[in-house]
Amino acid sequence: MVLDVPFRYLLIKRLVTVCTSKQTRNRNRDIFVKLTERSYITRSFCASSVRSNENEEDSADSSRLSTKLTSRQELLSRRRRPLSPLERISSLLPEDVLSPEVMQLRKEKLQELDGDTNIQVSDSDCTHQDHGPDGVAKEDHLEPHNAEEETPASSCSEEEQVSSSLPGETLLSLGELLIAEYRKKKQLEFRKMFQLQNRARLQSSWGIIPHNELIGRPAGCFQNTSMGVPIFIRRASLEDYVLHMKRGPAITYPKDAVTMLMMMDVTEGDCVLESGSGSGAMSLFLSKAVGTKGSVLSVEVREDHYKRAVKNYNNWRTSWGLRRGQEWPDNVQFHNTDLLTASSLLAGWAFHSIALDLISPHLVLPTVLPHLHPGGVCAVYIANITQVIDLLEGVRCSALPFLCERIIEVPVRDWVVTPALKKDGQYCVVKAPNLDEHSGQTNETSDEAEQDNDYGPKFRSIPYIARPHPEQLSHTAFLVKLRKFAS
């Protein structure tokens, strides 16, 4: 069979094209097989490194395996930052398909990594956590990060010596109410009130503190937990106790209680009537204000609230006696009765002031009015503004001899004021404006010299950051001041 020249040329070209495409497919298949084998080796190396961190007996096997890594796998394992998609693909390709420019860049990178002696291959691919002596995993935010957080714990011994030598100061003993606090970067992270008991433990997310380690310690010291976190231990004040004690109903917050005491002008020796004992918060503030010579009559209509108020009052008296060595004055009489029908209870009583915390206070005003001294103040704690309107309407309609002097709300706004810090933890320094370049250079060097001394920068050379605290106390109640006038 004889073929013409054009047809023979086309047939040869087609055969050459088929052969070329077959060779290309074979070469691509070989490349894919090599990439699969290399990725399997890399995954097996990561798995062996993780097992070596969990089990010390397998550390020898992982070290032998790490010595067999190629330069390409070392480049992948030693990288600190995340790789881009282009870098991942180029690192997996064989060297014969890379351009000379890429190979040169890879060699330079390997030389830089070889010069860094602080990088370890087994620690870069697999993440791990540090463990304390008790086997509990430590988190980064649990450890002190600067010298400011370490100085209170280191100076605790000096504080103990000073506190123990002061007259009238007593050490912590069993039965006292204490406050445990932990602050991270001057921000409160943990606060808890507890009673010091034998063989008990203070548990938190920052570790455990046995109560026996706190017995005999001075108040206001730092105690390390089982995880090495310094917790500040101090005695609970009356404000702390009111805010952290067990509650039945809502309490009268300290900011409102202090304002009510100022409205009523309570002094030592006064006789005060309280209606609505609640959880006993206002009863404690009144008990402290009237002192040992005064008395407080507290009336509560609900039995569960009455029991809670009595229990909280007795718990505070017990803790105070252990703390000061003398008893808290037992000057509050609690009664579980309704003030509307308590005419027999009030018989013979005369009050300098009255504190009401009721849903409908205007209903009891005719009952308590005859027992209030002329010119005395009745302070009413009301949650809603509609209740304030009902109170004023009740006074107007009943023609009671009361003058409404004030209706206020007590806002409290916490602020955060802290020195400005740089990213490296050093203080920022205030620099005065410079008129010429030479004076500017001298001022910068002097500022750096001031930061190198033992006492830090000089006075008022550090800028401060001041802003409202992100957690604010919202509305609690309205305070109404009614004064009795002589009819």
TrEMBL record:
User: In the Enzyme Commission scheme, what number(s) does this protein have?
Assistant: 2.1.1.220
Listed Basic and acidic residues bias regions: 125-148
User: Which keywords accompany this UniProt record?
Assistant: Methyltransferase, S-adenosyl-L-methionine, Transferase, tRNA processing
**GO BP terms, alphabetized:** tRNA methylation
GO molecular function terms noted in the UniProt entry = tRNA (adenine(58)-N1)-methyltransferase activity
Domain tRNA (adenine(58)-N(1))-methyltransferase catalytic subunit TRM61 C-terminal: residue ranges? 246-480
| Location of the TR61B FKBP-like domain | 175-228
| Alphabetized InterPro entries for the sequence | SAM-dependent_MTases_sf, TR61B_FKBP-like, TRM61_C, tRNA_MeTrfase_Gcd14
Positions of region (Disordered) = 51-77, 114-167
Catalyses which reaction(s): an adenosine in mRNA + S-adenosyl-L-methionine = an N(1)-methyladenosine in mRNA + S-adenosyl-L-homocysteine + H(+)
Question: What does the entry list under GO cellular component?
Answer: mitochondrion; tRNA (m1A) methyltransferase complex
Gene3D superfamilies from the entry?
3.10.330.20, Vaccinia Virus protein VP39
Q: What is this protein called?
A: tRNA (adenine(58)-N(1))-methyltransferase
* Source organism (scientific name): Kryptolebias marmoratus
